[in-house]
Structure formats: structure tokens, C-alpha cells
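Entry for the shared binder. Reason: the reviewer on the internal report wants the predicted structure included alongside the sequence.
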Amino acid sequence: MLGHHYTRTFLETAVASVNAGCNLELSYGMRNNVFMHIPQALAMGNITLQMLRDRVRPLFYTRMRLGEFDPPAMNPYSSLDLSVVQSPEHRNLSLEAAVKSFVLLKNVRGTLPLRARDLSGQRLAVVGPFADNPRVLFGDYAPVPEPQYIYTPRRGLQTLGANVSFAAGCSEPRCQWYSQAELVRVVETADVVLVCLGTGVDVETEAKDRSDLNLPGHQLELLQDAVQ
């Protein structure tokens, strides 16, 4: 609310938030945050002790129901490690979820899906700033994954045994510098071309908005050159 100029100080924000029914603040890593001003608001009479108790009660009730205060031995999840989380069963389920979540907008001439048996002898080109850059594949608030489990489009296609060539064209999503010659050299000899474009957290994320939906930098030019 402070950033949106609804209030002028953290104290005003604390009073307005508590009175409105808010009982949780996202302030990770902030020494000076809103809820630290609640005692002052209470002392000044802007909020009451009963109101404060009413806000705290459901919050801690939920935390207790979630088992946050239980001994670790009572928590069945405390014994899980990567051998379980990254087990073949869980990875196969994640793969199934990923496959079923794709949205295919236009499938001209039945180009997709690409099947490994059809790729024998085919030359594939994977191009674009998202083709083989693990860092840019994850969105805002994503956890830091184990590198061994990250499959970029290039790495994934190589597992099919296809003849895969690669050119980023741009080193990062902003695509301020674009190597047309690098792209053309790879694309002109390919039978199938996959162009991997987008934005990623480098370009847009929380508190980093854009005024349009255009592809960043030279990405549109990269796409047009690949099609040409």
C-alpha cells in the first residue's frame, strides 16, 4: 500500500492492514517492515488488543494444522530426500504433467508430435536464446533445481538420437546483440527448425512490467530470419 501511495508510512500501513483484516505480510529479508510497527499502533490506540488477537488466531491455527510446531519425527515429509523426490516414478509423473499441459495453437500439416522413429536421418536445428540456456527456463518464484535434472530443448532433442545443430543467435532473452550469420549457417542446412523464444525473468517479473507484448530486442528478427 505504501508503494501505491495509499498510505504514507509503515505505521499507517500497519493500522490500515490490521483494520482491514490482514494478518500476514510478505516481508522476507526486510529489517524495516510493516508488522514491526504494530506495537506502536497498539500503544497509540489505533488498533485494539482484541483485534490483534483476532488476526493472529487463524494464522497460528493454520500453522498448527499444517504441523509446523510438531516434532520432526511426526512429520512424514522430513524423511524425504532427493532419492525420493527425483525418483523415476516422480520424474515420469512430472513428464506426463508437462506433456499434458502443452497448448498447441496451430499444427500445420501435422508437423507435431516429433517422433524419434521419424527423426532418423533428419537434421534438426534448435535456435534462439531459450534453446540451450538452463538459467532462463524458469519463471518467477521458481526453486533452484539440480542442474543434472534440467533438460533444455537442445539437450532433450539430443536424447532422441537426432542430428541436432544449435545456434543461440542471442546470448540472453533481451537479445540486444544478434548474430544473424550464426543463425543462418545452422538453419539453412536443417530439415526441421525449432525456434525457442520468450521473455523470462530477465525481461519481466514481479515489479518489472512491460508496456507491450512484443518479443524483446532482436527476437522477432531472429524468428523472421529462421522462417525465411
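Summary line for the report: The chain has a mean pLDDT of 90.
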